[in-house]
Amino acid sequence: MSIGRVVVEADGGSRGNPGPAGYGAVVFDAPHDTVLAERWESLGVATNNVAEYRGLIAGLEAAAELGASMVDVRMDSKLVIEQMSGRWKVKHPDMIPLQRSASEIAQRFEQVNYTWIPRAENSHADRLANQAMDAADLGPEVEPASSLLPAAPASALQAPPAAPGWMDVQGAPTRMLLLRHGQTPLSVERRYSGRGNPSLTDVGRAQADGAAKRFAGHGEITAVVSSPLARAQQSAAGAAAALGLPVTVVEGLTETDFGDWEGLTFREAAERDPELHRRWLSDTSVRPPSGESFDEVRERIVGVRNDLTSTYGGATIVVVTHVTPIKMLLQLALDAGPSLLYRLHLDLASLSIADFYPDGGSSVRLVNDTSHL
């Protein structure tokens, strides 16, 4: 039985492009004041455009299940809207079957209109897509990093005597072996874990042991420094013992202060402060309630980098810390923009390597390697 006209709004996204991806779709009645159906799903590793198309397909299928006869599709993806309207050609091989599937579903309706809208007007579907991406992030469907990047050879852990010949930098770098801490109960439940102080799980301790075995025997490593939080110090202890070194605590390596979102899931934080949470996901100057902005974390990490390169100039050091400080150090080494913070995925107990040269040059040699686990 037909219910007449409905409005479908859909969105999709990928944290990494490709990276952990998901879509959201919502069906409204024609006056746009009643939600008739919602759909959202994690997609594992996919691109933004694939996720956008999957959101459209889910929204159209939901409208068909409701018995709609006419559909007004509203999305903030210019590519999907223009391709479905027939104004742009579909050239990418990944998009062709998705566009075909959406078109086949659209043929079930008497009429389908496609309209581009600004992201701010697509907030409901955007929220659902972010729920899906949150579920995909760190989920079992995400391709292991060890299959994406080659394992670092033993020599990569040691500082080179000088800069590579193609780089216009001078002197031996401070090589930072950036180790993310192991699993905690909050990471199992995918909860914001900032200044709270959970200990490692049994899995987390095993991950720390794997990292320690990787570092063992590398005499070029001269120091192990750690965040003051327990999960980082516990992860650092094994590496320090394997190397016969003490753990030096660096206060500035602590994780972001998530304020009132500490201990909440992505969905719980988004429901508690929907507008603020949405802005926080794209604006590094925005603070969580009673918390710390990413811009403030970056300023802190710049100071840590300067102190470490001054104290350990030309040496190789293990730096055990959290996901945000590691992303910040990689961002500084790459001289990259703030989007890196939202697009880069780092697994628990993963290893990344950055070199910082005395003349201000830098390079990244490895990202998110988990071959020791």
Q: Tags for this entry?
A:
5-stranded mixed β-sheet; elongated; 373 residues; Nucleotidyltransferase, domain 5; alpha/beta; 6-stranded mixed β-sheet; Rossmann fold
Portion of residues within helices: 25-40%
What characterizes the major β-sheet?
6 strands, mixed
Query: Poorly predicted ranges (pLDDT <50, ≥5 residues)?
Result: 138-155, 159-166
Beta-strand content estimate: 15-25%
Per the CATH scheme, the topology name of the largest domain is Rossmann fold
Instruction: Give the topology string: H per helix, E per strand.
Output: EEEHEHHEHEHHEHEHHHEHHEE
CATH architecture annotation name of the largest domain: 3-Layer(aba) Sandwich
- The residue-averaged pLDDT reads 87
Topology, number of strands = 11
CATH class of the largest domain: Alpha Beta
The termini sit apart by 55 Å
**Secondary-structure-derived class:** alpha/beta
The Rg value, from CA coordinates, equals 23 Å
Shape: elongated
Q: What is the total domain count? A: 2
Strand order of the largest sheet: 8-7-9-6-10-11
H/I helix tally: 12
Relevant CATH superfamily of the largest domain: Phosphoglycerate mutase-like
SSE layout and pairing:
Elements: E1 5-14, E2 19-29, E3 35-46, H1 48-66, E4 70-75, H2 78-84, H3 95-106, E5 111-116, H4 123-136, E6 174-180, H5 185-188, H6 202-215, E7 221-226, H7 230-243, E8 247-249, H8 266-272, H9 274-280, H10 294-311, E9 316-321, H11 323-334, H12 339-343, E10 351-356, E11 362-369
Parallel strand pairs: 1-4, 4-5, 6-9, 7-8, 7-9
Antiparallel strand pairs: 1-2, 2-3, 6-10, 10-11
